[in-house]
């Protein structure tokens, strides 16, 4: 395996007559071409698809970073010190983590993002469009705007990160225009970028008016203020998925349970993730509550695990699964992700999920933990009674071409290994 060579593909050509360009997506007149969202080889939503449904399952907007992941470090470098990593991986990060996670779970996924016209932008665009088959019809390339970059250093099951970038040339409204009709959109609550309350409808409000469910999360507040009015944006949301620290900070509560009950009064589906303690959820539309423990795993890198969890909740919700199955499935997917390095590289596909379930289902372990897992995940037998032909797996092609990660084992050697 070799590390990434981040050079522009020879086949990439760019018009230099304007400030931005959108390859193969706009006609010369500026009108949108019709672009079909790629259909996955295995479609978990096949039982619920009907004529006239939205072509897009999930639509997301955000910033794509080039993530460079250094692994095998004994410690982060001190001032003036140089240390060598034993492994390195390169992949699209930022909002790409969420888009790739949704796509690998079989959701027809469309992403709106700004891409630079540099080699990093070439790499991220090609990986998302060609290898991950994420629809980029509402993304644009911008001449002279360089791609944001994050260097992540994994040390002792934790990580440190250094990032650099500039604000995209266009905001969400200008970039997206009219959002595509979709089953769901995923957005972030942010003090400076409200989802509602402006003089014109936001892209989230437009998507919701067209029938999309709105799933929201929230980021860390480096100021430590955690303004409660951020939660006012939940009026246009159908689901909210913060972690326990964020949930308690914004609700001014002392426990994840207390925070969950506050949030359940503000949004139909409230989910609080709590790390090694699992996840809690209330769906006020169905009257269900769920408490799901985390799986026992050897966690290597938590990068992108929250995005994987969120994508799995979206899938289970639009598929109509009971709440306990939705949250259990999300916990499983994030547990599979944290056992590998690299954000979007680690997001599991249905091949990985089927391998895990069949190994557990057919395994010989009879202790209480494994019996509990079989009961909790027996619903997967109806979804993947066999390993689906052509089912997505982790980025074997991307990893084989662009990654040199110590300890990585291809799917052929990890097949059937449970979390």
Topology:
Layout: E1 20-21, E2 56-61, E3 64-71, E4 87-94, H1 95-104, E5 109-112, E6 114-116, H2 119-131, E7 140-142, E8 149-155, E9 158-164, H3 172-176, E10 182-189, H4 203-209, E11 213-218, E12 239-240, H5 244-251, H6 256-264, E13 269-273, E14 279-283, E15 288-292, H7 305-318, H8 323-338, H9 350-362, H10 368-376, H11 380-383, H12 396-402, E16 403-404, H13 411-414
Parallel strand pairs: 2-5, 2-10, 3-8, 6-7, 10-11, 11-12, 12-13
Antiparallel strand pairs: 1-7, 3-4, 4-16, 8-9, 13-14, 14-15
CATH topology: UDP-N-acetylmuramoyl-L-alanine:D-glutamate ligase
* Cα-based radius of gyration, to the nearest Å: 21 Å
What's the pLDDT, averaged over the residues?
A: 85
Q: What is the structural class?
A: alpha/beta
What is the fourth-level CATH superfamily? Ribokinase
As laid out across the biggest beta sheet, the strand order is 5-2-10-11-12-13-14-15
- CATH class categorisation: Alpha Beta
Shape: globular
Instruction: Specify the biggest β-sheet.
Output: 8 strands, mixed
What share of the residues lie within helices?
Answer: 25-40%
Beta strand count: 16
Q: What portion of residues belong to β-strands?
A: 15-25%
CATH architecture: 3-Layer(aba) Sandwich
Name the helix and strand elements from N-terminus to C-terminus, one letter apiece.
Answer: EEEEHEEHEEEHEHEEHHEEEHHHHHHEH
Question: Which regions are unreliable across 5 or more consecutive residues at pLDDT < 50?
Answer: 1-34, 396-418
How many domains, as an integer?
1
Distance between the termini: 25 Å
How large is the count of helical segments?
13
